[in-house]
Amino acid sequence: MNAPTLECASAQKLKLDLEQFQNELASGSDHSDYFMLINISLLQIVLSANLRCGECKEHTLQLDFDDSDRDGFCHQIKVFCTSADCMWQSSFKTSSEIRKGSETRGHKEVKIRMVSFARSIGRGHFTLVNFSQHLNSPPPLTLPAYTTIASKVGDASREVGEESMIKAALEVRQANSDTDPMKCGVSVDGSWQRRGDSSHNGVVTAISVETGKCLDVSVLTNV
Ligand SMILES: [Zn+2]
User: Fold this and answer.
1) Cα(140)–Cα(144) distance, integer angstroms
2) SS3 state of residue 78
3) Cα of 56 to ligand 1 centre, how many Å?
4) Does residue 95 surpass a pLDDT of 80?
5) Quick check: 78 and 88 in contact, CB under 8 A?
6) What is the whole-number distance in angstroms between the Cα of residue 84 and the centre of ligand 1?
7) What would the pLDDT profile of 172-184 be if each residue is shown by its tens digit?
8) Are the C-beta atoms of residues 56 and 129 closer than 8 Å to each other?
9) Distance 91 CA to ligand 1 centre (A)
10) Which residues are CB-neighbours of 157 under 8 A, at least 6 positions away?
């Protein structure tokens, strides 16, 4: 007989997040909205072998990239016909643009996602430079663009985090007595940016023992 396993609140939270991600993948409802890494020469082969020119109807299409119109990870791809008397061509960008509120100019979705990725693993701009080099791709967005987007992603993350914690707290309250204040079990844990006593930044989280969801977080800094 196996001994029952006791999961700590943090492990419960990680399990919840992983289950949600796997459910989203399994539902498959958003495949059309994925970003994919694709080798350009393979794309060229498939294009010229299977697609015909919009005008002369020949298998004479080729790809070209206008690097001056590239915006970080967002590329401008031109498809054109190589037939002597045909001038057909079309171009498109590899990412849509996201604007917030009344902004007249937004940021390409792929750039926002890549900055969000770097932040999520506690890294910065150089990680994206490294990423591009390893993929044999052109350089990513510039450092000033990275800083601007990282700041906006930080604001948005804070907003979503606060909403999520209020929702999690209401869930705990509804499952227990309605007294104010009420008692509930939490697991409190902290972490520092660096080992030893030299770190200037730390974070403390309170996770519900009942639901495994984060109820509160506090970032501490003496910088
Ligand atoms: Zn043509």
Assistant:
1) 12
2) strand
3) 4
4) yes
5) no
6) 8
7) 988 887 677 888 8
8) no
9) 15
10) 119
